[in-house]
Amino acid sequence: MAKKAKGKPHKQNKKGEMYDASGSELKRKNKSCPKCGEGVFLAKHNDRESCGKCGYTNFLGKKE
Ligand SMILES: [Zn+2]
Fold first, then answer.
1. What are 32's strand-pairing partners?
2. Distance 32 CA to ligand 1 centre (A)
3. pLDDT digits (tens, 9 = 90+) for 13-51
4. Residue 4 covered by a domain
């Protein structure tokens, strides 16, 4: 009877989880401007992130 439970779309659930993780990762990469709020994202540069709206710049310190 345990075979009947296998019919559940378990694999689909797993796919959804993967998509979710991808989504949050993307969100984390794009920092929002602390001055303008969450709707405005910082533009990424080589060593800094800047807001095109208010000019806020966040310098990324060298790690390593
Ligand atoms: Zn801003």
1. 41
2. 8
3. 555 555 555 555 444 567 899 999 989 999 999 999 999
4. no
If you search the block for the tokens 């390593």, which residue do you land on? 64
d(CA 53, ligand 1 centre) in Å: 5
9 pLDDT band, cuts 50/70/90, is low
CA of 51 to the centre of ligand 1 (A): 5
- CA distance to 8, 11, 14, 16, 62, per residue, from 5 (Å): 6, 13, 16, 20, 52
**Separation of CA 25 and ligand 1 centre (Å):** 22
pTM beyond 0.70: no
Does 18 fall in a domain? no
Q: How many domains does the chain have?
A: 1
Give the structural domain span for 45.
Answer: 27-64
- Residue 45 alpha carbon to ligand 1 centre in Å: 15
Query: 32 in a domain, yes or no?
Result: yes
